Amino acid sequence: MSTQDGSRPMQFIANRDEDYAQWYVDVVLKSKLADYAPVGGCMVIRPYGYALWENMVAALDGMFKETGHENMYFPLMIPESFLKKEAEHVEGFAPECAVVTHGGGKKLEEPLVIRPTSETVIWSMYKKWIHSYRDLPILGNQWANVVRWEMRTRLFLRTTEFLWQEGHTAHATEREADEEALRMLEVYRRFAEDYMALPVVCGEKTERERFAGAVRTYCIEAMMGDRRALQAGTSHFLGQNFAKAFDVTFQNESGEHEYVWGSSWGVSTRLVGALVMGHGDEKGLALPPRLAPIQVVVVPIYRKDEEKARVLEVAHQIHARLAKNVRVHVDDRDQLKPGFKFNEWELCGVPLRLELGPRDLENGQVTFARRDTGDKGTVPLDALESEVPTLLDMVQTGLFDRALEFRENNTCTTDSWTEFREQLEAGGFVYAHWNGSGETEARIQEETKATIRCIPFGRQPEAGKCILTGEPSEGRVLFARAY
Amino acid sequence: MSTQDGSRPMQFIANRDEDYAQWYVDVVLKSKLADYAPVGGCMVIRPYGYALWENMVAALDGMFKETGHENMYFPLMIPESFLKKEAEHVEGFAPECAVVTHGGGKKLEEPLVIRPTSETVIWSMYKKWIHSYRDLPILGNQWANVVRWEMRTRLFLRTTEFLWQEGHTAHATEREADEEALRMLEVYRRFAEDYMALPVVCGEKTERERFAGAVRTYCIEAMMGDRRALQAGTSHFLGQNFAKAFDVTFQNESGEHEYVWGSSWGVSTRLVGALVMGHGDEKGLALPPRLAPIQVVVVPIYRKDEEKARVLEVAHQIHARLAKNVRVHVDDRDQLKPGFKFNEWELCGVPLRLELGPRDLENGQVTFARRDTGDKGTVPLDALESEVPTLLDMVQTGLFDRALEFRENNTCTTDSWTEFREQLEAGGFVYAHWNGSGETEARIQEETKATIRCIPFGRQPEAGKCILTGEPSEGRVLFARAY
Questions:
Q1: Distance CA A378, CA A30 (A)
Q2: Which of A379, B234, B289, B330: disulfide with B351, CB 3.0–4.6 Å?
């Protein structure tokens, strides 16, 4: 499977331009982010992938708590009848459910579904907890696993079981609930752009793409390396739909009983897939420093034994000096050549490599290589504590800028059906006019395999003609083929 | 349900001496640690309970990482056939399983069980990953939910679904695997004693109480407030049992193929129940400062409006000064009287209360009250940053000492069957001789409802006669009624 002599890359990964899907699988498996599980459609998240997810969880959880949210935990198994209480919800989720029919050796009186999402069980509890306006708002979040039976699965992007967070909030007024949904979308945007270094388009889903049970669904959409779109997070204004389904009312300040207003919002381990495809290149992963499990790898270089001791000593000194503020790793494996190690850490997407050889020692420096640009240079040994964080910031910004430039270069605005089709065929984002009808949307999807990713926030009002039907349109929406 | 005038406790909780079981439920529900879920045997962990669990997770996870472990994630659903590969394992767990028979609207070809524990699926992956001694050890851990169908459930102590961590390690030698199991038991002991402030007895389980599939099971046992024992954590030396069941071999340094050696170990949300019962008293919870979601509550006291502004201002100054190092909360609710607040925060087990009234302000001090002893005193305002952490340390130690003294006062060593029975009937720990037979163990349980909690580590070799049969014994074991 691999030669370990450094003469060529240890790990073969498919050519990204020729077979993007295989490239993706190769990168995920060979960087050891994840592996296929023995259960169809499921995956095992390996330590490197889980460490990445932990960093994502820590950042998001911090942002949720800053905005006043508290974590809770609701049960995995939900009575089947609960799902049926919200008409659209059951229609959307029932076909995807895994069903527990037996427990403790006996057939259950009522089957239980493994949660595909937890609105129903959570609103059944909110009914117990909410009586007066004084009990509101409830700003809850849950970190959990969910199961959705999928036909075609792909590691991280679409797996039968996945990890996610699901926020579920309850409010006294419509406005508060909608503001909450928008606030959390903004949290997701900040996370995607500031941590994942992925620029996103924020907007509202069309009715056809809306969450089953929501009044409005907001989303962030990112462009992947093959120019397809990936929905990276959604937040839903639920109106009073779940409050009505579970009869959750409160007494307002005037003493009247009203239904409670709700929101829900979630992101999942799918975001790991977004990182792989959003930044990966022919060498493998490229991870943003703010999330990378290893931000800096130090590779000692020596040929003779008398060099080895000196080089390793300084390498470990560097580790000790940086470890306070940086996630740093010294690759002191003895049986492998530096070139092999370079390839391996590039495959794993480590943002910054420090090479330390006898000549570097003589010059009191290390040689660095950035994962994003491949740029190399040197840093004086005594300036490492200040220079390394600066270089990491540059990689973080560099990845964002590269992704933004790529998106801009692959986005067009058109009123021509021919250009519209060609652009979608070639891949990319297209802003075009649409008459607002779900039927038109479905026909466009049939013809182009593209969907409306969102009605972008802050779009210019612009009178135009629907790209398919020529009927009047009030503004452009974003089309793309999507994961 | 409650009067909010401060004249008597807001929340009625059952008398702890008269009805310990009801006291437990009242404390859990009324301090809002958890609530009953709509699915039988399951619970909802509310924000206060989840914050407590998060603090436990953070401490344990840090200790696991310090000892070289990495987190991973394995699937929730396990093929039923996997369970059957290890004979004792399936016998132990199959009767407790929840079974998924349908997914995506279709009947599954092979039913899937919801993991009751993950040895089987993890060892099926270790087979893929382990080839050479270079691949060992694998030091894995997983934070996850598991399901065990239980007949009698109790919030936190025994719920159909619970949250836990399960460590699963693979080693090249028997000695390493056993050392690992013992190392992790020591981590659990440190966590129980240093964080939970609960003294524990460490030892080995008898064959009858052993984990299904283990060669040896080690455990920590704590005494609860009703003098019953609670198993607070276990770690298992698995020998080569799962390696053989899943055919996991490796090539050793001599080029020979050997089966891999394993360990597994886990603690769960049951520990929240242990905290409630280990420290709780007639007023409710008493949480150790190192784990308490709120370590210090500041209660402002004022009668007139002109006092209010001044008191609240200083209360918030105190918050700002302490918040860097202490989890502090100001209870500035206006409609509630101080006495009511005192009761509520005592019910919730907050370790330290600071009262701030006009007279305190005049004297440049706050009045403090310790949750463990009820001791009150004053601290000069300008010494808060140093004095509050010291007081919290005193509460941490105070809780441990109180629990240790209680355990010592309720532990006896006896060779008299009458005393043995009486002590177990009254509640408490008993060290007694045992002939080493499972049949004797079973008969003792029938007669006394007590089980052997463990064969304590470091016990004195002592020739004696079995408490039941009079047959020879080499040393004493620990008996108690247990949760």
A1: 30
A2: B289
